[in-house]
Amino acid sequence: MTGTTYRGALIGCGFFSHNHMNGWRDLPGAEIVAVCDRDEDRARAMAEKFGIAKAYADAGEMLAAETVDFVDIATTAASHRPLVELAVRHAKTVICQKPFAENLADAEAMVAAAQAAGASLIIHENFRWQKPFVDLKSMIDEGRIGVPHFARFSFRHGYDNYVNQPYLAEIERFTIMDVGLHLFDLARHFMGEAKRLSCTTQRLNPKVKGEDAFTSLIAHVSGATSVCDCSFQSVVEPDPFPRTVAWIEGPRGSLSLDAEGIIQLHTPGHLERIDAAPEIPAWGEAPWHFVQDSVIRFQEHAIEVMSGRIDGRPSGADNLHTLALALAAYEAAGNGITIDMTNWSET
Ligand SMILES: NC(=O)c1ccc[n+]([C@@H]2O[C@H](COP(=O)([O-])OP(=O)(O)OC[C@H]3O[C@@H](n4cnc5c(N)ncnc54)[C@H](O)[C@@H]3O)[C@@H](O)[C@H]2O)c1
User: Fold this and answer.
1) What are the residue ranges of CATH 3.30.360.10 in the chain?
2) Helix or strand holding residue 60 (H, E)
3) CATH superfamily name and code, 6-124+298-314
4) With a threshold of 0.90, does the pTM exceed it?
5) For 56-89, how does the pLDDT look when each residue is reduced to its tens digit (9 = 90+)?
6) CATH, range 128-277+322-343
7) CB-defined site of ligand 1, < 6 Å
8) What is the dihedral of CA 277, 282, 287, 289, to 10 degrees?
9) How many angstroms is it from 74 CA to the middle of ligand 1?
10) Bridge partners, 196 (sequence order)
């Protein structure tokens, strides 16, 4: 650490941003000095809860008045492009929640705007920062199973998510854009870039507008295969929400991850059990701590990006590939086709 404390502004004081604010409050190296929500009452309530001096209803007004090193955007996707284009003109580091954008053109415009302004654009993609996945990646990088040739990343539950995030029941593009992005990021993180993708979608709960389940098959450039599957309408006891389970195979062994954060390393004649569950943050609560802890890990990484030591993981430019997979998955499902990702473009 350099001893610097980076000054930040938060845009969007809704459901998930409370995790952002709890994380920033406890991290040396960063401090939120102003918050903004177009719903002024929400902005004021957030400022009061975390003892922040300034609350704004307009992001432009906030960034004209405040001097900040970073902007943390925790709004939903439709607002991201104008907010990122604004923020990169005022701060050297801009963090944008997933989904990065609703379409590739907007996402590419944001990457270009950040480049033109000389700002780092990081996507708040926290599944790869969840402790079990950090540990799995280390084990694979250490060569414990050899180079992986198969993976499955699975997020299936029946939790009533619509209480905290009511907009999820209303969006036409639901699980692929909400959780699929996270699973596709894991697939790329562990298995490399995708060559071909196919997908099926299902609408199991008649109360939601979009697909609430999907299954996607990815052929990677490396020759590896991965399956990403998700359902918000599964009967599982105890319900695993909001945790992801995984299975990764290599030539020398296999790794499994269950909903309790237990990793099992299978090697010939041997089974090793590793408890990779994270600590519950002082402000957190089980089972949300898998996500809450990942927010802290992501933010620690963002501070390193601010100090100029490393690029964002993932950066906006990197996340274009994940977004492309999600958008292509809708095309694959809609038309019953396999998509060649090497020359896919959004129509
Ligand atoms: N990474 C994760 O694990 C995770 C988990 C949950 C949600 N999310 C993502 O976080 C984002 C926010 O989700 P949420 O559930 O908190 O949504 P939310 O609707 O509860 O909160 C969004 C807030 O942004 C505000 N807002 C929107 N446009 C604005 C603008 N132009 N200026 C100022 N404020 C604006 C809204 O008034 C609202 O208060 C979504 O993109 C969602 O996908 C990520």
Assistant:
1) 128-277+322-343
2) helix 59-65
3) NAD(P)-binding Rossmann-like Domain (3.40.50.720)
4) yes
5) 999 999 999 999 999 999 999 999 999 999 999 9
6) 3.30.360.10
7) 11-17, 36-39, 42, 59, 74-77, 79, 83, 97-99, 124, 126, 165, 167, 178, 291
8) -60
9) 5
10) 219, 340
